[in-house]
Amino acid sequence: MELNLNNIKLKSTGLPEQFPNDTLPQIAFSGRSNVGKSSLINCLIGRKSLARVSSAPGKTITVNFYETDGKIYIVDLPGYGYAKRSAEDQKQWSSLVDKYITETDNLRLVVQLVDMKVGPTKDDNMMLDWLTSSGVPFIVAATKSDKLNKTEYNSMMGALRGHPLIPESVPVIPFSALKGEGKSLIWREINRCLDK
Ligand code: GTP
Ligand code: MG
């Protein structure tokens, strides 16, 4: 079942003390810059331009909370892997994401995005390792699946499925914002976590 998301409120903050502290369940989306995070969020909630789809990676390090119909938060975590990010910005990013993941009691699921054409990067591996050790439930969405031919597709799915940092119990879902592939499977995983 997909939520009927008519009423969406955005709260954007770079300060952990301003993270929402109500009881609504939170579903967070994480991935490197340009992985297709905004496109995936827009596709899931059926809006064309709610989460900004950018051609130039943004610099501000914020967590975006989309409160949807007063039912859940869709949480857009700041992207990683910017080549030009300073050491100080990098530190701010880690501290913000770490605080979010470890201190959000109502975090039900992290959807970790990996570019299916590029495959898992070093930063993705660090994130996967981090998620596993934090114990938070997560799934992997392999984005931009429409860019691969059948051979590449099968080979990347095999590589992700056999990835040492992706436990067998973690679903790996090929996803295309262009074609809609994987949308209902991701919703199914989200609903499964909300029902618990
Ligand atoms: P930042 O917020 O800048 O870090 O990027 P992001 O992860 O939010 O990615 P975004 O959704 O802005 O997409 C980045 C680029 O990838 C854009 O040019 C999108 O059009 C393209 N893109 C996103 N999803 C898909 C997809 O499913 N298929 C294809 N072919 N391109 C995609
Ligand atoms: Mg984005």
Structure write-up:
This protein has 196 residues and is α/β, with parallel strands linked by helices. The chain has one domain (8-194): P-loop containing nucleotide triphosphate hydrolases (Rossmann fold, 3-Layer(aba) Sandwich), CATH 3.40.50.300. It has helices spanning 37-45, 87-103, 122-134, 150-161, 183-195, and strands at residues 8-13, 26-30, 63-68, 72-76, 107-115, 138-143, 172-174. The chain has a seven-stranded mixed sheet, sandwiched between helices. A hairpin with a 3-residue loop joins strand 3 and strand 4. The longest helix has 17 residues, at 87-103. The two termini are 15 Å apart. The model has no long low-confidence stretch (mean pLDDT 90). The structure holds guanosine-5'-triphosphate (GTP) and magnesium ion. Residues 37-38, 51-52, 54 line the site of magnesium ion.
Descriptive tags:
196 residues, alpha/beta, Rossmann fold, seven-stranded mixed β-sheet, 5 helices, 33% helix, globular, binds guanosine-5'-triphosphate, binds magnesium ion
What is the radius of gyration? Answer: 16 Å
What structural category do the secondary elements indicate? alpha/beta
Order of helices and strands: EEHEEHEHEHEH
Global shape: globular
- The CATH class name reads Alpha Beta
Please tell me the total number of domains: 1
Q: Work out the strand percent.
A: 15-25%
Largest sheet: 7 strands, mixed
Provide the helix percentage.
Answer: 25-40%
End-to-end separation? 15 Å
* Total strand segments: 7
Residue-averaged pLDDT, rounded?
A: 90
In the sheet with the most strands, the strands line up as 1-3-4-2-5-6-7
State the CATH superfamily name: P-loop containing nucleotide triphosphate hydrolases
What is the CATH-assigned architecture?
3-Layer(aba) Sandwich
Poorly predicted regions: none
Number of helices: 5
